[in-house]
Write a structure and sequence with these properties.
The complex is a heterotrimer. Chain A is 76% helix and 0% strand. Chain A is mainly alpha-helical. Chain A folds into two domains: 1-79; 80-110. By secondary structure, chain C is an all-alpha fold. In chain C, the strands form two sheets. In chain C, strands 1-2 form a two-stranded antiparallel ribbon. In chain C, strands 3-4 form a two-stranded antiparallel ribbon. The longest helix of chain C is centred in the first third of the chain and has 35 residues, at 62-96. Residues 1-5 of chain C have low confidence and may be disordered. The chains are: A mainly alpha, B mainly alpha, C mainly alpha.
């Protein structure tokens, strides 16, 4: 807070490089989006096709997991530097989440 | 941080969301909050799974005959697309293109509102069928889980709209850039939760 | 705006505290409120012990007794122990890591006021038709059947104060992650900062399940929900799981900061570096991790099946290992040290055997077959009072004596402090040691009375006599505090003479900006290092004097919290009073309105200028 941010003015080349790099990244995001749509389509189609639940459920869960990882690492930039803390705490949350869900589907005493 | 500093696309920092200490704190704090939110939703999912299709004796509603996949598919597409549009918004934020960012945020908001409209329609439909909040343990768990997600959508929309209105005249600076960034993170997280909702609640519900 | 010099009127001081975002003042608020609730919880405990002093007693009715035990547990855990620890964290942690403030000063204040209004709401139940009476665990089958509004006060009050705690936890985490002074690496952080860090992480992950459970309970009782009602397909075990997924980490949220306080005290008054620092850090993190894997040991008798019981039994016993590491490290810190028996140190030394006793009974209870025998008996009551009073409360009392000079620039009387210690310590063992045997003799917990001649009469009487000792100890402490405030003798910087960590290097009274220049940390126990090298100032600086950015005070946290307080009354009387829903909406409008005002109004804080800093007394030349 006390430290002022010193603006670094880019040279034209640096600027163009930055623009190009982020444009590239944006193209990557659009690809990610296409993959996510595709995964969603597969999931819905499989359910429509009426395969056995033992076959469908693990696969759609896997597809969901892949989609979430794409969302986290690309859309939410968790693959970028400076996200170590974010990862630590998100994964800790995921562990607690996992054991909570595991508990409720195994030991709730039906 | 001097807020009167006028930036140009050339001088706008690479990571405006965490260039200032304030921004960095918000950034870290928000990710931690999302870690906590993960556990919140896990508790709701866990309860839903334990109470799925459970109700008073003679319960007439099950996931199989309740859920309609076409509706869920449209909602999923809307929310997924809104996630992409908010990525576009942040792309323009990082390029210091305020107008384009506002435009993409606007698209995000419209998609979000459409999603919300469908969700309200869906809930309303269920209530008309007699599947009310108090009908059974299953209905309570369903409405609380999906409703909490819906409440997050409402909060996210309110947040983004508030930011857009508040900053409409003054454009981007290092004070509001972190706020826009966090709102978009929140929006993505809403999408993450929805991915699990459409998979675990709807698809797995229909599969049985 | 020079620090303390001007004398302010009562109104101005009150307004200052209502709007403050300064972590040191918020610490004082936590201390006062937490202390008040500690006394209230203590009075409830005394009522319990008076009722149980003799068989067939009718000092209180059965219903009132249930309310007493419920409120005693709830108050002590949520409204006394946690806030007091949060108070110490606020007071000490930013100074220990060389930060000018916490990461989110506004949220820090919001966290306090949410806790405050939640606590007040919960305690208003006494005057509004009866307090909650289903035990502090409020198991669903019992709680759903509880008439009146007691349980509603419990869920709503804990929801509000829980949000406050969660906000506090995130705030401390971010502060520690982002705002450490240059050179303050993770492995140079004082143990109290480390334990604050781990406890805050536990808060972050443990409070969401509690919040979810409270919401379920709330909708079940007030809004037609069916989560726990088995006739509607609900499942009462869900509550138990959610409660204990929160509840067990909660125990570590309480004990870890107490461990931190003791670690600082042992090192300071043994005048030795803490033995096995890195092992201590590792043990702290490990306890935090394992703390999430053991909650079902509270539910052995529910009938989760032998596999689940075995897993949780083993995991529970595993926690003894890192805890043992800590105990031995403390002993080895004392060993060969040049020990100074201040009151704080006496508490610390007394803590080791007391807490170990509680830990040993913990291992006994961790064994599922034995737990079937001991479950819900006074043995359990004795066990958790040994760890919570023997660990947390002794830690709080030790911390109060140890950090008092840091917070108030005066010193509590050591003589009176020793009186408190002996009264409290002897009283405590008299009260609770005998309860182990009451449990083994079969006395169940939470009974409001017992018949004569079952062999319980004398033991219960002894236990009640012990409780008087504890009450007298606390009374002496109150006298001590009042005397210290009235005498108001300033003690200055590093009053113990052996301060090791950065907080003792700060000039007294602590300037509102904490550090005129950000310190450069050169090692573990940085103040000790500077003192050894003859540095009179006690700090090496990382930067020249410059403008300091400070946050503005704000009244909005009070308004946000008050809105929820109002809304809670609306929810409570939903479906009973015509005004309920309007009040609910009004409260939410206040809260969200205040939040919108907060986000629309830019708050950039202000700068303390370099010239003003130079002018002040003791300035760097």
């Amino acid at each position: 807070m006390a430290h002022d941010v010193h603006a670094h003015v880019r040279s034209q080349t640096e600027y163009e490089y930055k623009r190009r790099r982020s444009a590239n990244e944006m193209r990557g995001h659009v690809t990610t989006f296409a993959i996510m749509i595709f995964l969603t389509l597969i999931a819905f189609t499989m359910v429509y096709a009426g395969f056995s639940a033992y076959f469908v459920v693990p696969i759609i869960l896997l597809l969901a997991a892949v989609q979430v990882i794409l969302q986290l690492y690309y859309f939410m930039h968790m693959s970028h530097k400076g996200h170590e803390t974010a990862q630590l705490f998100l994964y800790s949350g995921v562990i607690v989440a996992f054991i909570t869900i595991l508990t409720m589907i195994t030991i709730v005493w039906w | 941080m001097d807020l009167n500093t006028k930036y140009t696309p050339q001088s706008w920092p690479d990571h405006p969301e965490n260039t200032t200490l304030e921004g960095k704190n918000k950034f870290t704090g928000f990710w931690l909050f999302l870690g906590g939110e993960t556990v919140t939703f896990a508790s709701l999912f866990a309860t839903y799974l334990a109470l799925k299709n459970k109700g008073p004796s003679g319960m007439e509603f099950t996931t199989q005959d309740l859920f309609e996949l076409p509706l869920v598919f449209i909602m999923t597409m809307l929310l997924l697309t809104s996630s992409l549009t908010s990525v576009y918004a942040m792309y323009h934020m990082k390029n210091y293109n305020f107008k384009a960012m506002q435009a993409w945020l606007m698209v995000t908001v419209i998609l979000g509102l459409a999603f919300l409209g469908f969700e309200i329609y869906e809930f309303n439909h269920y209530v008309h069928l007699g599947f009310t909040f108090g009908q059974s343990a299953f209905s309570s768990a369903f409405f609380i889980l999906v409703g909490t997600h819906g409440a997050h959508v409402v909060v996210g929309l309110g947040w983004i709209i508030l930011l857009m209105v508040r900053n409409a005249k003054r454009g981007l600076n290092l004070y509001n850039a972190p706020k826009f960034y966090l709102a978009s993170l929140y929006w993505h997280f809403i999408d993450v939760v929805w991915v699990f909702i459409f998979t675990v609640v709807y698809l797995m519900g229909v599969v049985g | 705006m020079s620090s303390i010099a001007q004398k302010k009127g009562f109104g101005a001081t009150l307004w200052d505290y209502l709007t403050t975002v300064d972590h040191k003042k918020i610490a004082i608020l936590y201390l006062i409120t937490g202390g008040l609730f500690f006394v209230i919880g203590g009075i409830e405990a005394m009522v319990i012990r008076i009722q149980l002093a003799q068989p067939d007693s009718d000092f209180v009715s059965a219903g009132l007794f249930n309310q007493m035990i419920t409120m005693h547990g709830t108050t002590m855990i949520f409204l006394a122990a946690m806030p007091l620890l949060l108070g110490f964290m606020n007071a000490v942690m930013p100074l220990q890591i060389g930060a000018r403030d916490v990461a989110f000063p506004f949220l820090n204040s919001l966290g306090f006021w949410l806790f405050f209004f939640g606590g007040i709401f919960l305690n208003l139940s006494w005057f509004m038709g009866g307090a909650p009476d289903a035990g502090w665990t409020s198991y669903a089958s019992l709680a759903l059947a509880s008439p009146g509004h007691g349980i509603d006060f419990y869920t709503l009050g804990l929801l509000i104060s829980g949000f406050g705690t969660l906000i506090g936890g995130i705030n401390f985490l971010v502060t520690i992650i982002n705002m450490r002074a240059p050179g303050m690496t993770y492995m140079r952080m004082p143990l109290f900062t480390w334990t604050t860090f781990v406890a805050s992480a536990l808060i972050l992950f443990a409070f969401p399940p509690l919040t979810v459970g409270m919401v379920f309970m709330m909708v079940d009782r007030m809004f037609d929900g069916n989560f726990f009602d088995h006739t509607m397909g609900g499942n009462t075990i869900i509550w138990e799981h959610l409660f204990w997924i929160f509840g067990h980490p909660e125990v570590y949220i309480l004990i870890l900061p107490a461990f931190g306080i003791f670690s600082e005290i042992f090192a300071t008054f043994s005048r030795k570096r803490l033995f096995g620092y890195s092992a201590m850090v590792f043990a702290t993190v490990l306890i935090g991790f394992l703390g999430f894997m053991v909650w079902a040991h509270h539910m052995f008798t529910v009938g989760l099946g032998p596999t689940a019981n075995a897993i949780f039994s083993v995991a529970t016993m595993a926690i003894a290992v890192p805890t043992g590491v800590k105990i031995f490290n403390w002993l080895l810190t004392i060993w060969g040290g040049s020990i100074k028996f201040t009151v704080a140190m006496i508490y610390a030394v007394a803590f080791i055997p007391t807490f170990t006793a509680g830990g040993v009974t913990g291992i006994m209870l961790a064994s599922a077959p034995l737990d079937y025998q001991l479950h819900d008996s006074y043995f359990v009551v004795a066990h958790f009072h040994y760890v919570i009073v023997g660990g947390v409360v002794l830690g709080l009392l030790a911390g109060l004596h140890y950090y008092w000079p840091l917070m108030f620039n005066t010193m509590l009387s050591e003589a009176l402090g020793k009186w408190t210690f002996w009264l409290f310590f002897i009283g405590f063992h008299l009260t609770f040691f005998i309860q182990h045997f009451l449990g083994l003799l079969g006395m169940p917990r939470r009974v409001f009375t017992f018949g004569a001649n079952q062999g319980w009469d004398l033991y219960n009487l002894i236990s009640s006599i012990g409780a008087i000792g504890m009450a007298l100890g606390v009374a002496v402490l109150v006298v001590n505090i009042i005397r210290t405030i009235v005498k108001n003798e300033k003690v200055g910087r590093d009053p113990w003479g052996d301060g090791r960590t950065l907080e003792w290097a700060v000039p007294q009274p602590v300037p509102f900006y904490n550090f005129k220049q950000t310190p450069l940390v050169r090692g573990l126990d940085t103040f000790w290092i500077e003192k050894q090298e003859g540095n009179k100032e006690g700090m090496t600086y990382a930067e020249p004097v410059g403008d300091i950015h400070m946050p503005n005070n704000s009244f909005i946290p009070v308004v946000i919290s008050f809105g929820l307080f109002v809304a809670a009354f609306g929810a409570l009387y939903n479906g009973e009073q015509p005004w309920a829903v309007p009040v609910l909406i009004l409260g939410l409008v206040i809260t969200f309105g205040a939040m919108i005002v907060r986000s629309l109004k830019d708050d950039h804080g202000y700068h303390v200028h370099k010239e003003d800093l130079m002018d002040e007394k003791g300035g760097k030349h």
